[in-house]
Amino acid sequence: MRTQVAIIGGGPAGLLLSHLLHLWGIDSVVLESRDREYVEHRQRAGMLEQGTTDVLRESGVGERLDREGLVHHGLELRFGGAGHRVPLTDLTGRTVTVYAQTEIVKDLVARRLADGGDVRFEAEVVSLDASAPAVTFRSGGRTHTLDCDYIAGCDGFHGVSRPAVPGLRTFSRDYPFAWLGILADVPPSTEELIYANHDRGFALHSLRSPHVSRLYLQVSPDEDLAAWSDARIWDELAARFATDDGWKLHDGPITDRSVTPMRSFVAEPMRHDRLFLAGDAAHIVPPTGAKGLNLAVSDVIILARALAERYASGSRTLLDGYSDACLRRVWRAEHFSYWMTTLLHVDPHATDFERRLQRSHLDYVASSDAAKASLAENYAGLPIF
Ligand code: FAD
Ligand code: DHB
């Protein structure tokens, strides 16, 4: 079995790469270890930068995004019992869009299959050779080999690609908290996202549709989900979002819940020979800055363009610059995600001095146009090229 580009992982990175390569006339096979139902329903990201929505739209998979995506022009920082708006569009000229990762994955799977693409679910890659490029995978109880020109490692943080890069340098930071995320059948209590800092911990109010809310609570990293009844979750959210003017959080049936650890991680370089890492396979950010999916998309745009140049002209210049081009953007997003996380969460180990500094930092961001502009520029997303 042979293809031009073997793609390991059918998350947003792998599926979008396969779609973009197809538009450039380049063949690929996507190998995804889980089943279709699982990847289409795994609740994760929701906030898309304009660069992400632009590429989905321009590559012809933006039809449902345009119909159902919720365009946002600002966000709220809430602390000390009051809200402070950051007018993203006024400050940057750009918008952000709420459209769930599950929906992007559904759109991309449907489009790849409609275009005759080769996307294999329940196909787990067990080994790969980055020099005589090939991947070995298990599917239907048998072992297969897929020969190729290039391998794209889009298999997320726990995949097989990153360990196949020798001499990798890694950088990481673990945080002393996690997020408990819920999906609830209740109209959002807000039009714009609310990022709240409270002595009890961070909380985020996001949304999925006019009828479905998505909310997150800072919890401890070893939190037992079973200890959180629906009533306890809603009470805690209400306490952390409370304002002096009596703002009200609406509650409703919770349809999904999970706990996610928070981590910063970067692996350098993002390439070994003919293997290219993209997305969570190469880097992780804590979700506070809403950057993970957007970074996966920008890696893939850079990789698709580099492969297209290689096949069209024989030039390896863009492929050789791939890792550096991605890492510049990755480190900016790493810093912003760390910054937003530190600004908004309660560090259980912080000294009183550090807590006062954090409050001063929040006051500064809320009151300074320059600080808001910096937050907005990073949140709405910096240019890809
Ligand atoms: P993944 O989505 O992890 O996909 C990798 C795929 O590879 C998986 O389907 C996996 O099954 C498959 N795989 C693994 N190993 C193998 C193997 N050996 N063989 C074959 N297949 C394999 N990002 C944002 O931009 N905005 C947000 O608002 C945001 N919010 C988030 C909220 C939460 C709670 C979480 C957890 C994440 C959030 N993120 C957000 C991050 C975002 O979800 C990830 O960065 C994104 O999923 C990365 O996509 P990916 O394709 O690189 O990796
Ligand atoms: C969502 C997740 C985030 O991490 C974030 O910063 C904003 C929104 C969401 O799931 O909607």
UniProtKB/TrEMBL annotation:
Pfam families associated with the record: FAD_binding_3
Alphabetized PANTHER family for the sequence: P-HYDROXYBENZOATE HYDROXYLASE, TRK SYSTEM POTASSIUM UPTAKE PROTEIN
Record keyword Protein biosynthesis present: no
Top-level taxon of origin: Bacteria
Species of the source: Actinomadura chokoriensis
SUPFAM superfamilies in alphabetical order: FAD-linked reductases, C-terminal domain, FAD/NAD(P)-binding domain
Protein name listed in UniProt: 4-hydroxybenzoate 3-monooxygenase
NCBIfam families hit by this protein: PRK08243.1
Gene3D superfamilies: D-Amino Acid Oxidase, subunit A, domain 2, FAD/NAD(P)-binding domain
Every FAD-binding domain range: 2-337
Keyword line: FAD, Flavoprotein
Family annotation (InterPro entries): FAD-bd, FAD/NAD-bd_sf, RIFMO-like
